[in-house]
Input
Amino acid sequence: MRDSDAGLLKQLDGWYAAQCNGDWEHTYGITIKTVDNPGWYFKVELTDTYLTGRAFAEISENRGNDKEAFLCMVKDRAFIGCCPPSRLYEVISIFLHWADGGSTQPAPGRIDS
Output
């Protein structure tokens, strides 16, 4: 794990902790799980956060097969990201950059190989 990856997880941890108000964390939260194509599913529930209703331009890439599909979107009051195994940090980066008031593109300096 690169230092920048650890920093990304620390930022996500901080965002989550900031939402915890005694109620939100009992009903909502963050889900990260694997999927069988293979890849990752990342979901952040936005209800009762400052992100509820914030516009997000969907990011969708499909390189001809499900194994390479990449998607970030907001739907039903949730940020959802689906990606290949090597791109989870990119999805988290896109979410955090957007949550911090940035565009829907990854934060500058974030390059995945």
Remarks:
- Residues 106-113 have pLDDT under 50 and may be disordered.
- The first helix runs from residue 3 to 19.
